[in-house]
Amino acid sequence: MPASDSDQKDRRQNDPWSATFWKGRRVIVTGHTGFIGSWLSLALLELGAEVHGLALPPTSDPSLFAASGLEGRMAHRIVDLRDLDPTRQAVSAAAPEIVFHLAAQPIVRQARQQPVESFATNVMGTVHLLEALRGTDSVRGLVAFTTDKVYRNREWPWAYRESDALGGIEPYGASKVGTEQALDAYRSSYFQGPRRLPVAAIRAGNVVGGGDWAADRLVPDAMRAFAAGEVLVIRRPQAVRPWQHVLEAVGATLLLGRLTLEQPDLADQAWNFGPREEDRQPVGWIADRLASAWPGGRWRHEPDEGGYEAGLLAVSSDKARSLLGWSPRWTVAQAIDSSVEWYRRWHEGEDAAALVREQMRAYGIFGG
Ligand SMILES: NC(=O)c1ccc[n+]([C@@H]2O[C@H](COP(=O)([O-])OP(=O)(O)OC[C@H]3O[C@@H](n4cnc5c(N)ncnc54)[C@H](O)[C@@H]3O)[C@@H](O)[C@H]2O)c1
Q1: The pTM is what?
Q2: Burial class of residue 349 (count of CB atoms within 10 Å of its CB; 0-12, 13-18, 19+)
């Protein structure tokens, strides 16, 4: 049955990748020097947005931010969100319409080693940003990244829904629960009524893709080991995680960004975005797939006694599917294979920004 005119119009209205919507729009990306922030900034630039970034310098070398030449393509500001006044000044100077908040200390193991820094950035950094937005009249929407690890984990065999209780029992998850509490408090105390500012929180799963060089993450660890001809060491091969390609997370972020302007009451809440049920896979499965995609790749198991990590973590995307029509475009196998391809070709000397653009087209955006 052919789609009606109104169906087609609805679909266009929901299109997160619409250049018509993003062209010329002033946005802030906090954490633009990081992995997801770089992919998001590159996508927004492709769509014609005016992108302002607030972050610390890249934490890895190499970094996608440097490799893709982002510094010369956007308004790049080094700002430590733990400092209120510089955060206020940078937000006010950028005068954005939509703000994407990704800056964080995002590594579980590092948070266990440095809880003070992690809480300072993830909680007070968010409070400072919210305070800056409270004083900036141009802002009409905020999309903030938290994580699937905010749920009080009961090792249930089913996926967590947005209405389930929050509660981190290790420092990273707990600090992101703090992020959510700050968002809630500002949402209900300051951002209703005349100073309306919808706040969409994104709880995404384990994001994979080319250009992540963080320590203590499976895909970057694997790519480093394989490129050096070493065997990848895995701590918890049985742990099941919701793996998804970075373009799924970027698409969800753009979708919510658009929604904050077009349907603010709907946008103004927390949203899970995860893979399909059949794509929740154990770490060992991912390691097998990574090793078979990289010629000569190998891994072995070395148990780690270093504190709590959930055995099973799954988030339900039912709300995003039914209310926003969202679903992942790629399977986990496609996500892993395209990630390995990205790193392999980058190691062979190909241009990072061109590889990102090519994968955006393969993913089906920008008319590809
Ligand atoms: N990568 C994942 O699998 C994943 C999954 C779910 C949620 N997230 C969330 O997504 C966001 C981005 O993650 P990522 O993987 O790109 O992380 P990343 O470590 O690559 O990037 C983090 C960014 O935050 C910035 N930052 C850190 N501390 C800061 C501070 N005090 N002031 C200003 N900027 C600061 C860094 O400079 C960097 O730009 C984070 O909020 C993370 O918690 C990531």
Answers
A1: 0.96
A2: exposed
The 10s digit of each residue's pLDDT in 44-71 is 999 999 999 999 999 999 999 999 999 9
Indicate the fold that domain 15-205+245-275+308-330 takes in CATH: Rossmann fold (3.40.50)
Task: Say how far apart CA 135 and CA 48 lie, in whole Å.
Answer: 27
Helix (H) or strand (E) segment spanning residue 315: none
Cα 107 to averaged position of ligand 1 atoms, centre (Å): 8
Ligand 1, atom 27, lies closest to the CA of 104
Q: How far apart are CA 232 and CA 241, in angstroms?
A: 18
Q: Which residues line ligand 1 (CB under 6 A)?
A: 31, 33-37, 55-56, 59, 79-82, 102-106, 121, 125, 145, 147, 204, 206-207, 214
Question: In angstroms, rounded to a whole number, what is the distance separating the alpha carbons of residues 276 and 285?
Answer: 16
Ligand 1 atom at minimum distance from 207 CA: 3
148 has pLDDT over 60: yes
* CA dist., res. 325 & res. 313, Å (int): 23
Instruction: Tell which residue, 18, 17, 38, has the closest CA to residue 207.
Output: 38
